[in-house]
Design brief:
There is one protein chain. Helix content is about 85%, strand content about 0%. It contains 11 helices and no strands. The chain is flat and about 60 Å long.
């Protein structure tokens, strides 16, 4: 081709930085949407270039790729917080949760990967809860549990405790979001299905203690929203409590 592998990655990083430069150069004359699009493009192009440089072309060492990816993630979280744009937050949330696949390729230990997922999801709550971004929350939680499902299907690591921590953060954040605004019906259906899917993952792991903790989590959340008369949230958490109880029964039976 016209460019070698190294030049392709260098060009991609140059494009990423150029988008950031243009965004601030034209900030006074361009619309807010165009400005946010360039900021998001800077993040996405940089993350894709890092993944390509490490996995496809092998021109970046694993340590260098990890450092660059983390720098872009810090940038993305900061931009999401400052700009308050839910579309931008969604892109950053989703793309940041692709890093575990790169870490898995680099043969990073599974507990470290799971810790990253938990920390990344928890940090993004600063943005989604502060600005009541239900759709970004939906995308981030879905990306988190699907990434954990990927490792569950590999069968070489237990994901239940990482999943449980993500669930605890999600339940607490969603209750906080409900106090500000009740989401649309489609979001409430997604939330219930996500909780049910998570309970199904706990059943697949066949570990009793995490399933028991999930019952305590959903039961306590149900009691809280019942006390606050949050009917829309109550229906979701009540069904989730029943599902988590079923997970306990299945896991207890499996352990016998």
């Amino acid at each position: 081709g016209l460019f070698g592998d190294t030049m392709k990655i260098v060009s991609a990083y140059a494009l990423s930085l150029a988008m950031l430069a243009v965004a601030y150069w034209k900030r006074e004359t361009w619309t807010e949407a165009a400005f946010d699009s360039l900021l998001g493009g800077t993040f996405i192009v940089g993350m894709l270039a890092t993944a390509a440089g490490a996995i496809l072309y092998g021109v970046l060492s694993e340590s260098m790729a990890l450092i660059i990816a983390l720098l872009y993630i810090v940038y993305g979280v900061g931009v999401s917080y400052v700009r308050r744009n839910e579309v931008l937050t969604s892109f950053v949330f989703f793309t940041s949760l692709l890093l575990p696949y790169l870490l898995d390729y680099m043969e990073v230990s599974k507990p470290v990967i799971f810790m990253y997922i938990v920390v990344m999801f928890s940090v993004m709550q600063i943005v989604t809860v502060k600005y009541t971004q239900w759709y970004a929350q939906m995308i981030g939680f879905s990306a988190s549990i699907f990434t954990l499902t990927f490792f569950l299907w590999q069968g070489d690591a237990k994901v239940s405790w990482a999943l449980l921590i993500v669930l605890i953060v999600m339940v607490a954040s969603s209750i906080q979001l409900f106090t500000v605004i009740v989401p649309k019906r489609a979001v409430r259906i997604w939330l219930l299905n996500s909780y049910l899917f998570s309970c199904g993952m706990l059943m697949m792991e066949e570990q009793l203690l995490p399933a028991v903790v999930s019952v305590v989590l959903f039961g306590a959340a149900t009691a809280y929203v019942m006390k606050r008369y949050m009917k829309q949230a109550l229906d979701i958490l009540y069904v989730s409590t029943v599902a988590s109880m079923f997970a306990v029964v299945v896991n207890a039976t499996s352990s016998d």
